[in-house]
Specification:
The protein is mainly β. The protein has helices at residues 53-59, 156-161; strands at 17-26, 32-36, 42-45, 67-72, 86-89, 105-109, 116-125, 128-132, 142-153. Strands 1, 2, 3, 4 and 9 form a five-stranded antiparallel β-sheet that branches. It has a four-stranded antiparallel β-sheet with strand order 5-8-7-6, with no helix packed on it.
Length: 171
């Protein structure tokens, strides 16, 4: 029986395939904010919303070795900045030993739902810390240089879990 999850050169990027991607990501001002080299690529399950929609659409149909420049607008990435997604939190709500700084990232648990959220300290005020609950890349146009470095069929477990597993990984 042949192993369908082995790397295959004849596959093209599409739903149900695990894609390995080398990339660099820049903002409009040219600042490079993220990269993945070909020997340590981003590995994701195509069609499972593991990556932003605009990038996923642009990759469909590519083959191993294909490279592209892709510009993704905020609506196809992390959305626009929501001016209502700010919350003033009194200082006594933070652990006493935590030294707060503007720009600092925090992981918070929403009381009631238990949902985890990422927040960033936008401003330190007299009456508390103003937290920004927007994604840090909200409102940004993203500029990717990408190269497809691998494609393989997903295992049934990866499809069931909705994401790619690293070699030998189970859970």
């Amino acid at each position: 029986m042949k192993d369908d999850t082995a790397q295959r050169d004849d596959l093209i990027v599409g739903d149900g395939l695990v894609v390995s991607l080398a990339y660099s990501l820049r903002l409009d001002d040219g600042e490079e904010i993220d990269t993945a080299a070909g020997d340590d690529p981003l590995v994701y399950l195509h069609g499972a919303q593991n990556i932003i929609p605009g990038l996923e659409r642009a990759l469909a149909g590519l083959k191993i070795g294909d490279a592209r420049s892709v510009t993704v607008s905020p609506d196809d990435a992390y959305g626009e900045m929501d001016p209502d997604a700010f919350e003033l939190v009194p200082y006594d709500a933070f652990p006493g030993d935590l030294e707060l700084e503007e720009g600092m990232g925090l992981r918070m648990v929403e009381s009631g739902t238990g949902r985890q959220m990422e927040a960033y300290i936008s401003e330190l005020r007299d009456d508390g810390a103003l937290l920004d609950l927007n994604h840090p890349l909200a409102g940004e146009t993203l500029h990717f240089n990408v190269e497809v470095v691998g494609i393989r069929r997903a295992t049934s477990e990866e499809v069931a879990h909705g994401h790619a597993h690293s070699e030998g990984h189970t859970h």
